[in-house]
Amino acid sequence: MRIILLPIFILLVSLSAFGQNNLQNYTPSILFKKGDWEYKTFQNLYTQTKLFDTDGGKVATGQRETFFTSINQFLYGLNDQVNIGLDVWVKSSNNSIDNFSSSTGLTGIGPKIKIAPFKDLPRLSIQSTFLFNTVDDPEGVNGSRYFLEWDANLWLNQIYFDLPLNKKSQLFFQQAFWYRMTKDGSSVDNNFLETQTSIFYSYFPTSRWTIYGMTEYFPTHYDFGNDRSEAFFAYFLQSGLGLKYQLIPNLIELEALYTNFWNGSEFKGAGETINLGIRVIRQK
């Protein structure tokens, strides 16, 4: 989806004075100081033509399904232990079996707060976001659209931690809890939980370039067939390689990431993603 206001936003920020800190220092674990802020837009395109079977093999579905997600985030520093912000998520989907019929909607909008609970551990932080789904019939239960998102509001809690290994590399860890609160009209009777465990290894060849690899394990703790909670009922694994480049040092960063879904439980998608991001950080 085209973000119309983004070029204007970047232009206005570019006219401001540059900050003094390398953007590589600002991992998701690090909070902003008072008055500093960040805007990030991240575009995720997932596509699949295969599903995993009971043995972990890949089976062709005879159709292509594509899902696009635009995640737009703003974060502002109240102080170096509390940041607040707003997320806006827009999703689009289509599939070839319906002659590439598409569906688009605002699937999440809401506030977030990030805290660094321990002053002695500034690289450990917790972020909580509540997203309201504003789309009518996002699952396509009534046949008004192709499946776009679960018909639920999302309470997303994330724990971040990064560990510098040396001046040229570091590890980053994320543990996330996706708690979906189903709404009337959903095909799912109960609220359900998904968890996300991610690890990133980053290498810094220069102060403007970052090269990283990542792996993510994402289980769902719900049996949709019997509409009941069940720990680790389904899962997928994805890994990928990414690049970050500071287009304007200390101000604007570009990001590109490719991932492949290489393992998963039965009926999970065996697809791949292409991701592009722009991050703007304004420091006093």
Task: Give a summary of the structure in a few sentences.
The protein has 1 helix and 12 strands.
Task: Please give a structural write-up.
- With 284 residues, the protein is mainly beta.
- It has one domain: Porin, CATH 2.40.160.
- The protein is 3% helix and 62% strand.
- It contains one helix and twelve strands.
- The protein has a twelve-stranded antiparallel beta barrel.
- Strand 4 (101-115) and strand 5 (124-131) form a beta hairpin.
Characteristic terms for this protein:
mainly beta, 284 residues, 12 strands, Porin
Blueprint (SSEs and pairs):
Blueprint: H1 6-14, E1 37-52, E2 58-79, E3 82-95, E4 101-115, E5 124-131, E6 152-166, E7 169-182, E8 192-203, E9 209-223, E10 228-248, E11 252-264, E12 272-282
Antiparallel strand pairs: 1-2, 1-12, 2-3, 3-4, 4-5, 5-6, 6-7, 7-8, 8-9, 9-10, 10-11, 11-12
The value of Rg in angstroms is: 19 Å
Q: What is the name of the CATH superfamily?
A: monomeric porin ompg
CATH class: Mainly Beta
* Unreliable stretches covering 5 or more consecutive residues: 10-20
> What global shape is seen?
globular
Number of helices: 1
Distance between the termini: 32 Å
Number of domains: 1
If strands are numbered along the chain, what order do they take across the biggest sheet? 1-2-3-4-5-6-7-8-9-10-11-12
- The name CATH uses for the topology is Porin
**CATH architecture classification:** Beta Barrel
- Measured as a percent range, the helix fraction is under 10%
Beta-strand level of the residues, as a percent range? over 45%
Query: Quick one: biggest sheet?
Result: 12 strands, antiparallel, barrel
Number of strands: 12
What structural class do the secondary elements suggest?
Answer: mainly beta
Spell out the helices and strands N to C. HEEEEEEEEEEEE
